Class II aldolase/adducin family protein (Thermaerobacter composti), 360 residues
Amino acid sequence: MRYALLAPPRDDFLGRVLAGLRGVLDLHGHQPTDADDPELGLAIQVADPADPRPFRRQSRGTFVVTLMEGEPGENVLQRAYPYLVRTLSNLLIYVTEEHGRRCLHFITPELGHYQLAYEARDEAAFFEEVYERLRPLAQSRFVLDNVFVPDLPRELWDGNETTRALAEAGRRLAALDLLPAPFPLEEYLSPRDLRHLKLLYGIGGLSYGNLSARHEGNTFWMSASGIDKSRMEVIGRDILLVKDYDPERQAMILSVPADREPRRVSVDAIEHWMIYREHPEVQAIIHVHAWMDGVPSTEVNYPCGTYELATSVAELVRRSPDPAAAVIGLKNHGLTITGRSLDDIFERIEGRIQRQVPMT
């Protein structure tokens, strides 16, 4: 992996963090380069809270980490998350000083938030731990592209019993208070930055949670990205039919109506595709930003929409005593729940779900 530090040397604590990151990256054999390198894999920048600016990637394969000095106190995630969005970052490291100690808050687009206290007595071990948290994220492969094929049969343009069940399930999730409001990107990004975000990641909106249900064979209906899941109405806009995955293009293949402009499917489609393909008994999957006690969990908080996260979740479903009734934890993120029907999933989670995801 080639990396670039996009800030000059500085003599404050962020300068110490930059120097430590450079040292540990070099130690592990990563190659320093400049911001214009088309093969740039990791870009690390420092942002000013008064004027946070994005680094404009040349490739969507570049993972951007932003360092920023922040204020201590409660609701760090609420205060810091807008800076992650405004800098178009994959990871925000928000540095605070609390009780005389420096603390690094790691914040991801999926609302992951965990922290690491700075240890001056053993800087080498500290930056090694930072590297171990950063490396798997920076080297993940995103499956974000969609290929829209306008071949959805006319009789499905208005949906069917399965899509109506998905819409009802979205309303039930909202009634359980498991659907945070979509994040208002337009309030934090300029029209130019919004266009850049969509060009890189196909993101036109940001919302949390998703759900799907098997259609025929390994095809499945799934909620779209960036929508209010409690109001899914239009096929191709709110609910899409996923046909397949193209590994060469790293893209999901979607069957859409020929008479409308489609939206992108949820970024977790690759994960659902793996599970449906391997387990014919699985008929529905729900993902929520919540938790349940005693569930097996992924070891690394890979970003949503990555092949690595999908593989990790699929492996845990495979190990489950009953893959059609699995509840899998996604570290620092939420739950993926399989079922023999959407109703089956709700019967198993109601009364057991916890809205707060533990962060480690």
Remarks:
- The longest strand covers residues 91-98.
- DSSP finds eight helices and 15 strands in the chain.
- The CA atoms of residues 156 and 235 lie 8 Å apart.
